[in-house]
Design goal:
single chain; alpha+beta; three-stranded antiparallel sheet; two-stranded antiparallel ribbon; 8 helices; 7 strands; extended
Length: 245
């Protein structure tokens, strides 16, 4: 290992990677380094756009996002041999990855000369923790993105929700399995083809009880209407004091 800070031999780097992999493969130790990124995973699992290669020819980092555009079609009265219709296309947008986050740590080899752990294992776990910290940050940004993408609930005054701008307020008394019928109505009226729920604490205990208690099979079926992703660490924190689904 070099005496220059942050400079290691290839062998040392390989050993650190091996030790980090061993920690990650250990079910018990792994739990200490798993990031709380459920909201981010929900978006990734359900996204319909296609992400292209990173454009790295310059110092700037740009990613290409593409999707098929067939949104402008509409019906009209029939015409004779006139083909004045919108052209199908593949849309592409380039996004500049401008946000940079960092974290770091120091490890002095002399400090661990008589320690139970060697310096390579210390650095390996430091790297795992650094990755966890950065992943947690991106999960909070996923919630910010969800909030920024909100639209107006077309259900309006019908049902259990009170629509105000891009928010729909539902009284606490309605937050049980019976609410799924209203959420199903919302999905249909707003033309969501593949809806899913991302929630903080809302519905968590009700879903858990329905899943575990034999008496609540009917509730479990109602909750099974959609895939529900519970992010207990980011959704409500980003929206405090509101509880948001």
């Amino acid at each position: 290992m070099s005496t220059t800070g942050g400079v290691f031999s290839e062998t040392t780097l390989a050993n650190i990677q091996v030790k980090a992999d061993r920690v990650w493969q250990d079910k018990i130790q792994k739990e200490d380094y798993v990031a709380d990124v459920v909201a981010l995973k929900a978006i990734q699992a359900n996204q319909t756009a296609t992400f292209g290669k990173y454009l790295t020819g310059k110092k700037d980092r740009i990613v290409e996002i593409s999707w098929i555009n067939a949104c402008d079609l509409d019906d009209q009265a029939c015409t004779n041999c006139e083909f004045d219709f919108p052209e199908l296309s593949t849309n592409m947008d380039e996004k500049y990855l401008y946000r940079c986050r960092e974290t770091g740590f120091e490890a002095n080899e002399g400090t661990f000369h008589d320690n139970l752990y060697d310096i390579e294992e210390i650095i390996a776990k430091g790297m795992l923790r650094a990755g966890q910290v950065l992943d947690n940050y991106w999960a909070t940004q996923a919630v910010v993105a969800l909030n920024a993408a909100k639209g107006v609930n077309e259900v309006g005054t019908a049902g259990k929700g009170a629509v105000s701008g891009t928010d729909t307020y539902v009284l606490p008394a309605y937050w049980d399995a019976g609410l799924m019928s209203y959420l199903y109505l919302v999905a249909k009226v707003n033309r969501f083809k593949s809806p899913y729920l991302v929630s903080g604490k809302n519905l968590f205990e009700s879903v858990w009880t329905a899943d575990k208690e034999a008496c609540c099979e009917n509730d479990a079926k109602k909750f099974g209407t959609y895939n529900i992703w519970f992010d207990l660490f980011n959704i409500d924190v980003a929206n405090t004091p509101d509880y948001v689904t």
